[in-house]
Amino acid sequence: MTIKAAVFASGAGSNFEAIMEANDLKCKISLLVCDKPGALVIDKAARYGIPTLVFNPKEYGSKSEYEEMIHRHLQHYGISWIFLAGYMRLIGDTLLNEYESKILNIHPSLLPFFPGKDAIGQAYDAGARETGVSIHYVDAGMDTGPVIAQESVMIEENDTKEKLKERIQKVEHQLYPTVINQVLSNKVR
Ligand code: GAR
Questions:
Q1: Is 117 marked within a binding site?
Q2: pLDDT score of 81
Q3: Most exposed residue of 1, 45, 117, 119, measured as fewest CB within 10 angstroms of its CB?
Q4: Ligand 1 centre and the CA of 149: distance in Å?
Q5: How many domains does the chain have?
Q6: Domain containing 162: what range?
Q7: How many Å lie between the centroid of ligand 1 and the Cα of residue 118?
Q8: Which of 71, 107, 136, 173 is catalytic?
Q9: What's the CA gap between 178 and 183, in Å, rounded?
Q10: pLDDT for the residue 6
Q11: Number of other residues whose CB lies within 10 A of the CB of residue 136
Q12: Which residues lie closer than 8 Å to 20 by C-beta, 6 or more apart?
């Protein structure tokens, strides 16, 4: 039976696109969930003909209220896995309980270093020599769940944040589909 997955994203959607373009992805991306009306990723999903749930968290009384609404949509589409791809919001108890060990996140640093927002800028401004990409299971913390895979990216002497971001995202676009397939084929514990 086909495994159905949802991508959650808030921004440009380059990782969403990389997942969509991956060869032999072992699941069907059946829904995009986006918490930022107007985000570029919404247009990308439309181009791929992927149904999209766009919502504004401010219109809900609490996280559990909007996560219950998301959960109803996930059930409707028969979603069994969630891949966060630049979804800039903590996942709450509602979805964590329903999707235990079935939510992955990609983060642009070698966790546990530089969690949270603007991880690339944080590493660059700290004068780090090395940063990278992490893919991890999601828990209630900010980029704190068990790490599945990491790949490092060196920060060069004459780097700019933009150049560094380009190299990091190139790694992300390769790594995320690969790790998704490994996890879905039970090659990760
Ligand atoms: C990616 O670099 C992803 O690693 C990062 O947001 C970017 C989204 O880019 N995620 C986080 O920082 C999560 N804490 P995209 O919208 O082009 O895929």
A1: no
A2: 98
A3: 1
A4: 16
A5: 1
A6: 4-184
A7: 9
A8: 107
A9: 9
A10: 98
A11: 22
A12: 29, 44, 48, 50
